[in-house]
Amino acid sequence: MAAVCLPAQNKSAGINLSIWKGISTQPLDSTQTTYINLGVVSSMNRLNGVGLNILGGITQRDMNGVQVSGLVNVASGSMRGVQLSGISNIAGNNTTGVAATGLVSITGNNVRGVILSGLTTITGNNASGVVVGGLMTVTGDKVSGVQLAGLANITGTTYNGVMASGLLNVTGGNINGIQISGIGNIAANSLNGMQIGLCNYATKVHGVQVGLINYYRTEMKGLQLGLVNANPDTRVQMMVFGGNATKTNVAARFKNELFYTIIGAGTHYLDFSDKFSASVFYRAGLSVPLCKKLSLSGDLGYQHIETFKNKDYGIPKRLYALQARVNLEYQLTDKFGVFATGGYGGSRYYNKSRTYDKGAIVEAGVILF
Protein backbone atom coordinates (compact mmCIF):
# COMPACT_ATOMS: atom_id res chain seq x y z
CA MET A 1 0.00 0.00 0.00
CA ALA A 2 1.51 3.31 -1.03
CA ALA A 3 0.57 6.83 -0.07
CA VAL A 4 1.10 9.64 -2.51
CA CYS A 5 1.05 13.26 -1.25
CA LEU A 6 0.15 15.92 -3.79
CA PRO A 7 0.82 19.60 -3.13
CA ALA A 8 -2.25 21.64 -2.34
CA GLN A 9 -3.54 23.56 -5.31
CA ASN A 10 -3.06 27.32 -5.30
CA LYS A 11 -6.67 28.52 -5.30
CA SER A 12 -8.10 31.34 -7.43
CA ALA A 13 -5.11 30.96 -9.78
CA GLY A 14 -3.05 33.09 -7.38
CA ILE A 15 -5.38 36.07 -7.78
CA ASN A 16 -6.59 37.69 -4.57
CA LEU A 17 -9.41 40.21 -4.79
CA SER A 18 -10.03 41.41 -1.26
CA ILE A 19 -12.36 43.80 0.54
CA TRP A 20 -11.29 42.92 4.10
CA LYS A 21 -9.66 40.09 5.99
CA GLY A 22 -11.79 37.00 5.37
CA ILE A 23 -13.68 38.68 2.54
CA SER A 24 -11.51 37.74 -0.44
CA THR A 25 -11.26 35.34 -3.35
CA GLN A 26 -8.23 33.53 -1.89
CA PRO A 27 -8.13 31.88 1.54
CA LEU A 28 -5.50 32.89 4.05
CA ASP A 29 -3.49 29.72 4.70
CA SER A 30 0.08 28.53 4.43
CA THR A 31 -0.44 26.77 1.08
CA GLN A 32 -1.34 29.86 -0.89
CA THR A 33 0.83 32.16 -3.01
CA THR A 34 -0.60 35.37 -4.43
CA TYR A 35 0.55 36.67 -7.80
CA ILE A 36 -1.97 39.47 -8.29
CA ASN A 37 -3.67 41.27 -5.43
CA LEU A 38 -6.26 44.04 -5.69
CA GLY A 39 -8.28 45.24 -2.74
CA VAL A 40 -9.14 47.60 0.05
CA VAL A 41 -7.37 45.70 2.85
CA SER A 42 -5.70 42.40 1.95
CA SER A 43 -4.16 39.63 4.07
CA MET A 44 -2.10 37.03 2.20
CA ASN A 45 0.26 34.17 2.97
CA ARG A 46 2.89 35.14 0.40
CA LEU A 47 3.00 37.68 -2.42
CA ASN A 48 5.10 36.92 -5.49
CA GLY A 49 3.92 39.59 -7.87
CA VAL A 50 1.92 42.79 -7.58
CA GLY A 51 -0.31 43.95 -4.74
CA LEU A 52 -2.42 47.14 -4.95
CA ASN A 53 -4.60 48.13 -2.00
CA ILE A 54 -6.55 51.24 -1.09
CA LEU A 55 -5.72 50.97 2.63
CA GLY A 56 -3.26 48.19 3.40
CA GLY A 57 -1.60 44.99 2.28
CA ILE A 58 -0.34 42.37 4.74
CA THR A 59 1.69 39.24 3.94
CA GLN A 60 2.34 36.61 6.62
CA ARG A 61 5.53 35.52 4.88
CA ASP A 62 7.69 37.13 2.19
CA MET A 63 6.79 39.79 -0.34
CA ASN A 64 8.60 39.45 -3.66
CA GLY A 65 7.51 42.03 -6.19
CA VAL A 66 5.61 45.30 -5.88
CA GLN A 67 3.35 46.28 -2.99
CA VAL A 68 1.49 49.60 -3.10
CA SER A 69 -1.01 50.76 -0.45
CA GLY A 70 -2.64 54.01 0.52
CA LEU A 71 -1.74 53.55 4.20
CA VAL A 72 0.36 50.53 5.25
CA ASN A 73 2.38 47.68 3.75
CA VAL A 74 3.46 44.79 5.98
CA ALA A 75 5.69 41.85 5.06
CA SER A 76 6.08 39.65 8.15
CA GLY A 77 9.02 37.91 6.46
CA SER A 78 11.33 39.65 4.00
CA MET A 79 10.58 42.24 1.34
CA ARG A 80 12.32 41.93 -2.02
CA GLY A 81 11.23 44.48 -4.56
CA VAL A 82 9.31 47.72 -4.11
CA GLN A 83 7.06 48.92 -1.28
CA LEU A 84 5.16 52.21 -1.58
CA SER A 85 2.69 53.50 1.02
CA GLY A 86 1.22 56.66 2.47
CA ILE A 87 2.02 56.01 6.13
CA SER A 88 4.23 53.00 6.85
CA ASN A 89 6.25 50.14 5.37
CA ILE A 90 7.17 47.24 7.65
CA ALA A 91 9.37 44.22 6.93
CA GLY A 92 9.79 41.74 9.78
CA ASN A 93 13.05 40.37 8.44
CA ASN A 94 15.05 41.89 5.56
CA THR A 95 14.38 44.59 2.97
CA THR A 96 16.03 44.33 -0.43
CA GLY A 97 15.06 46.92 -3.01
CA VAL A 98 13.18 50.19 -2.64
CA ALA A 99 10.78 51.13 0.17
CA ALA A 100 9.21 54.60 0.27
CA THR A 101 6.57 55.86 2.67
CA GLY A 102 5.12 59.09 3.99
CA LEU A 103 5.87 58.54 7.68
CA VAL A 104 7.70 55.48 9.10
CA SER A 105 9.71 52.63 7.57
CA ILE A 106 10.74 49.70 9.79
CA THR A 107 12.92 46.71 8.90
CA GLY A 108 13.51 44.08 11.56
CA ASN A 109 16.87 42.94 10.28
CA ASN A 110 18.95 44.05 7.27
CA VAL A 111 18.44 46.59 4.48
CA ARG A 112 19.98 46.50 1.03
CA GLY A 113 18.76 49.18 -1.29
CA VAL A 114 16.97 52.50 -0.85
CA ILE A 115 14.71 53.34 2.10
CA LEU A 116 12.81 56.63 2.14
CA SER A 117 10.42 57.87 4.81
CA GLY A 118 8.88 61.22 5.63
CA LEU A 119 9.56 60.95 9.37
CA THR A 120 11.61 58.00 10.62
CA THR A 121 13.50 55.05 9.17
CA ILE A 122 14.46 52.22 11.55
CA THR A 123 16.51 49.11 10.76
CA GLY A 124 17.15 46.46 13.38
CA ASN A 125 20.55 45.37 12.13
CA ASN A 126 22.63 46.40 9.11
CA ALA A 127 21.93 48.74 6.20
CA SER A 128 23.70 48.95 2.84
CA GLY A 129 22.63 51.60 0.36
CA VAL A 130 20.69 54.80 0.90
CA VAL A 131 18.67 55.38 4.08
CA VAL A 132 16.65 58.61 4.30
CA GLY A 133 14.36 59.90 7.05
CA GLY A 134 12.64 63.26 7.03
CA LEU A 135 13.36 63.60 10.76
CA MET A 136 15.43 60.63 11.94
CA THR A 137 17.16 57.43 10.85
CA VAL A 138 18.13 54.68 13.33
CA THR A 139 20.19 51.62 12.47
CA GLY A 140 20.93 49.00 15.10
CA ASP A 141 24.34 47.92 13.87
CA LYS A 142 26.36 48.75 10.75
CA VAL A 143 25.67 51.09 7.84
CA SER A 144 27.44 51.25 4.48
CA GLY A 145 26.41 53.92 2.01
CA VAL A 146 24.50 57.15 2.56
CA GLN A 147 22.36 58.09 5.57
CA LEU A 148 20.36 61.34 5.44
CA ALA A 149 17.97 62.88 7.98
CA GLY A 150 16.39 66.23 8.69
CA LEU A 151 17.24 66.05 12.40
CA ALA A 152 19.40 63.08 13.42
CA ASN A 153 21.15 59.93 12.20
CA ILE A 154 22.00 57.24 14.75
CA THR A 155 24.06 54.11 14.07
CA GLY A 156 24.78 51.48 16.70
CA THR A 157 28.35 50.43 15.90
CA THR A 158 30.10 51.18 12.59
CA TYR A 159 29.38 53.53 9.73
CA ASN A 160 31.07 53.40 6.32
CA GLY A 161 30.09 56.20 3.98
CA VAL A 162 28.41 59.60 4.20
CA MET A 163 26.15 60.58 7.12
CA ALA A 164 24.40 63.96 6.87
CA SER A 165 21.70 65.57 9.02
CA GLY A 166 20.28 68.93 9.98
CA LEU A 167 21.20 68.63 13.66
CA LEU A 168 23.05 65.53 14.89
CA ASN A 169 24.95 62.43 13.73
CA VAL A 170 25.83 59.71 16.24
CA THR A 171 27.91 56.59 15.64
CA GLY A 172 28.19 54.25 18.61
CA GLY A 173 31.47 52.81 17.31
CA ASN A 174 33.61 53.86 14.35
CA ILE A 175 32.94 56.20 11.44
CA ASN A 176 34.85 55.47 8.24
CA GLY A 177 33.84 58.32 5.98
CA ILE A 178 32.17 61.68 6.49
CA GLN A 179 29.77 63.08 9.09
CA ILE A 180 28.08 66.38 8.21
CA SER A 181 25.57 68.06 10.51
CA GLY A 182 24.14 71.44 11.40
CA ILE A 183 24.93 71.09 15.12
CA GLY A 184 26.99 68.09 16.23
CA ASN A 185 28.81 64.93 15.15
CA ILE A 186 29.73 62.14 17.57
CA ALA A 187 31.95 59.12 16.94
CA ALA A 188 32.01 57.21 20.23
CA ASN A 189 35.11 55.31 19.22
CA SER A 190 37.22 56.39 16.22
CA LEU A 191 36.87 58.79 13.31
CA ASN A 192 38.60 57.71 10.11
CA GLY A 193 37.70 60.50 7.73
CA MET A 194 36.05 63.86 8.35
CA GLN A 195 33.54 65.53 10.67
CA ILE A 196 31.94 68.83 9.68
CA GLY A 197 29.60 70.55 12.13
CA LEU A 198 29.38 73.22 14.82
CA CYS A 199 30.57 70.71 17.44
CA ASN A 200 32.56 67.54 16.73
CA TYR A 201 33.56 64.72 19.10
CA ALA A 202 35.55 61.53 18.62
CA THR A 203 37.53 59.35 21.00
CA LYS A 204 40.24 58.86 18.36
CA VAL A 205 40.72 60.98 15.25
CA HIS A 206 42.48 59.78 12.11
CA GLY A 207 41.43 62.56 9.78
CA VAL A 208 39.96 66.04 10.02
CA GLN A 209 37.48 67.78 12.33
CA VAL A 210 36.00 71.04 11.01
CA GLY A 211 33.71 73.09 13.26
CA LEU A 212 33.40 75.80 15.87
CA ILE A 213 34.32 73.37 18.66
CA ASN A 214 36.36 70.21 17.99
CA TYR A 215 37.22 67.69 20.69
CA TYR A 216 39.08 64.39 20.75
CA ARG A 217 39.60 62.31 23.87
CA THR A 218 42.62 60.04 23.43
CA GLU A 219 44.38 60.26 20.05
CA MET A 220 44.81 62.70 17.16
CA LYS A 221 46.43 61.78 13.85
CA GLY A 222 45.18 64.51 11.59
CA LEU A 223 43.95 68.07 11.85
CA GLN A 224 41.42 70.14 13.78
CA LEU A 225 40.08 73.28 12.10
CA GLY A 226 37.86 75.30 14.39
CA LEU A 227 37.47 78.24 16.72
CA VAL A 228 38.15 75.97 19.70
CA ASN A 229 40.23 72.79 19.29
CA ALA A 230 40.37 70.79 22.49
CA ASN A 231 41.34 67.51 24.14
CA PRO A 232 41.70 66.39 27.79
CA ASP A 233 45.08 68.15 28.00
CA THR A 234 43.76 71.50 26.74
CA ARG A 235 44.21 74.27 29.32
CA VAL A 236 41.53 76.95 29.48
CA GLN A 237 43.08 80.21 30.66
CA MET A 238 41.57 83.64 31.39
CA MET A 239 43.26 86.73 29.94
CA VAL A 240 42.71 90.34 31.01
CA PHE A 241 44.61 93.01 29.11
CA GLY A 242 44.62 96.52 27.71
CA GLY A 243 46.14 98.21 24.71
CA ASN A 244 45.74 100.70 21.93
CA ALA A 245 43.64 98.47 19.61
CA THR A 246 40.79 97.94 22.05
CA LYS A 247 41.38 99.61 25.36
CA THR A 248 40.05 96.97 27.81
CA ASN A 249 39.74 93.26 26.97
CA VAL A 250 38.71 89.94 28.50
CA ALA A 251 39.37 86.64 26.72
CA ALA A 252 39.57 82.87 27.13
CA ARG A 253 42.60 81.07 25.73
CA PHE A 254 42.39 77.37 24.81
CA LYS A 255 46.00 76.23 24.89
CA ASN A 256 47.33 72.88 23.71
CA GLU A 257 50.97 71.83 23.70
CA LEU A 258 51.92 74.17 20.84
CA PHE A 259 48.77 75.62 19.30
CA TYR A 260 46.21 77.87 20.94
CA THR A 261 43.05 79.81 20.14
CA ILE A 262 41.67 82.91 21.86
CA ILE A 263 38.05 84.12 21.98
CA GLY A 264 37.29 87.41 23.67
CA ALA A 265 35.61 90.81 23.77
CA GLY A 266 36.82 94.34 24.29
CA THR A 267 35.47 97.85 24.83
CA HIS A 268 36.43 101.25 23.49
CA TYR A 269 37.88 100.56 20.10
CA LEU A 270 37.55 104.32 19.76
CA ASP A 271 39.00 106.65 22.39
CA PHE A 272 37.54 106.97 25.88
CA SER A 273 36.49 110.52 24.94
CA ASP A 274 34.17 109.08 22.26
CA LYS A 275 30.89 107.35 22.93
CA PHE A 276 30.90 103.63 23.77
CA SER A 277 32.33 101.20 21.19
CA ALA A 278 33.09 97.50 21.50
CA SER A 279 34.41 94.45 19.67
CA VAL A 280 34.61 90.66 19.69
CA PHE A 281 37.69 88.88 18.43
CA TYR A 282 39.20 85.53 17.60
CA ARG A 283 42.89 84.65 17.38
CA ALA A 284 44.81 81.47 16.55
CA GLY A 285 48.51 80.95 16.96
CA LEU A 286 51.58 78.96 17.96
CA SER A 287 53.50 79.13 21.25
CA VAL A 288 57.05 77.86 21.90
CA PRO A 289 58.87 77.83 25.26
CA LEU A 290 62.13 79.78 25.52
CA CYS A 291 62.92 78.52 29.00
CA LYS A 292 61.04 77.05 31.95
CA LYS A 293 58.77 80.07 32.60
CA LEU A 294 59.26 82.21 29.52
CA SER A 295 57.53 81.59 26.20
CA LEU A 296 57.18 83.29 22.83
CA SER A 297 54.01 83.12 20.73
CA GLY A 298 52.59 84.54 17.54
CA ASP A 299 49.04 84.64 16.22
CA LEU A 300 46.70 85.99 13.57
CA GLY A 301 43.35 87.49 14.52
CA TYR A 302 40.00 88.74 13.27
CA GLN A 303 38.08 91.47 15.11
CA HIS A 304 34.49 92.61 14.60
CA ILE A 305 33.89 96.20 15.76
CA GLU A 306 30.62 97.96 16.64
CA THR A 307 30.68 101.74 17.12
CA PHE A 308 27.04 102.10 18.28
CA LYS A 309 26.01 105.79 18.64
CA ASN A 310 29.31 107.02 17.21
CA LYS A 311 27.77 106.36 13.78
CA ASP A 312 25.78 109.55 14.29
CA TYR A 313 29.06 111.48 14.12
CA GLY A 314 30.26 110.17 10.77
CA ILE A 315 32.08 107.07 12.09
CA PRO A 316 31.19 103.75 10.36
CA LYS A 317 28.55 101.72 12.21
CA ARG A 318 30.68 98.57 12.12
CA LEU A 319 34.15 97.58 10.95
CA TYR A 320 36.37 94.56 10.85
CA ALA A 321 40.09 94.27 11.53
CA LEU A 322 42.80 91.80 10.56
CA GLN A 323 45.71 91.65 12.97
CA ALA A 324 49.06 89.94 13.58
CA ARG A 325 50.72 89.76 17.00
CA VAL A 326 53.91 88.56 18.68
CA ASN A 327 53.64 87.89 22.43
CA LEU A 328 56.22 87.43 25.16
CA GLU A 329 54.83 85.66 28.24
CA TYR A 330 56.29 85.01 31.69
CA GLN A 331 54.70 82.70 34.27
CA LEU A 332 55.17 84.18 37.72
CA THR A 333 53.40 81.42 39.68
CA ASP A 334 51.47 78.23 38.92
CA LYS A 335 48.28 80.29 38.62
CA PHE A 336 49.42 83.68 37.40
CA GLY A 337 51.43 85.14 34.51
CA VAL A 338 52.04 88.37 32.65
CA PHE A 339 52.53 89.11 28.95
CA ALA A 340 53.37 91.92 26.54
CA THR A 341 52.34 92.15 22.90
CA GLY A 342 53.53 93.92 19.81
CA GLY A 343 51.84 93.71 16.44
CA TYR A 344 50.20 95.37 13.49
CA GLY A 345 46.63 95.60 12.27
CA GLY A 346 44.20 97.46 10.09
CA SER A 347 40.45 98.02 10.29
CA ARG A 348 38.32 98.11 7.15
CA TYR A 349 34.77 98.85 6.03
CA TYR A 350 32.47 95.87 5.47
CA ASN A 351 30.78 97.52 2.49
CA LYS A 352 33.76 99.29 0.94
CA SER A 353 37.15 98.18 -0.25
CA ARG A 354 38.84 100.77 1.93
CA THR A 355 40.96 100.87 5.06
CA TYR A 356 39.52 102.90 7.95
CA ASP A 357 42.57 102.81 10.21
CA LYS A 358 45.88 100.95 10.52
CA GLY A 359 48.94 100.95 12.73
CA ALA A 360 51.02 99.22 15.37
CA ILE A 361 49.42 97.27 18.21
CA VAL A 362 50.80 97.46 21.76
CA GLU A 363 49.14 95.47 24.59
CA ALA A 364 49.94 94.08 28.02
CA GLY A 365 48.05 92.08 30.59
CA VAL A 366 47.78 89.12 32.94
CA ILE A 367 46.91 85.43 32.48
CA LEU A 368 45.10 83.33 35.05
CA PHE A 369 46.16 79.67 34.60
Short account of what is shown:
This protein is mostly beta strands and 369 residues long. Helices cover 0% and strands 69% of the residues. It contains no helices and 30 strands.
Please give the number of β-strands.
30
Taken together, the total number of domains comes to 2
Shape: elongated
What is the tally of helical segments?
0
* Secondary-structure class: mainly beta
The overall pLDDT average reads 93
Measured distance between first and last alpha carbons? 98 Å
What is Rg?
32 Å
Helical residues, percent: under 10%
Order of helices and strands: EEEEEEEEEEEEEEEEEEEEEEEEEEEEEE
Strand % is: over 45%
Spans of at least 5 consecutive residues with low confidence: 1-7
Largest β-sheet summary = 17 strands, parallel, barrel
Oligomer description: single chain
Explain how this protein is built.
This protein folds into two domains: 156 residues, no CATH class; 134 residues, Porin. The protein has no helices and 30 strands. The termini are far apart. The N terminus is likely disordered.
Q: What are the key terms here?
A:
OMP/PagP_B-barrel; 369 residues; Autotransporter domain-containing protein; 17-stranded parallel beta barrel; mainly beta
Write the layout of secondary structure elements.
Elements: E1 15-20, E2 23-24, E3 34-44, E4 47-59, E5 63-69, E6 72-75, E7 79-85, E8 88-91, E9 95-101, E10 104-107, E11 111-117, E12 120-123, E13 127-133, E14 136-139, E15 143-149, E16 152-155, E17 158-165, E18 168-171, E19 174-181, E20 184-196, E21 199-220, E22 223-230, E23 235-243, E24 248-255, E25 259-267, E26 278-289, E27 294-306, E28 318-331, E29 336-349, E30 355-368
Parallel strand pairs: 1-3, 3-4, 4-5, 4-6, 5-7, 6-8, 7-9, 8-10, 9-11, 10-12, 11-13, 12-14, 13-15, 14-16, 15-17, 16-18, 17-19, 18-20, 19-20, 20-21, 21-22
Antiparallel strand pairs: 1-2, 23-24, 23-30, 24-25, 25-26, 26-27, 27-28, 28-29, 29-30
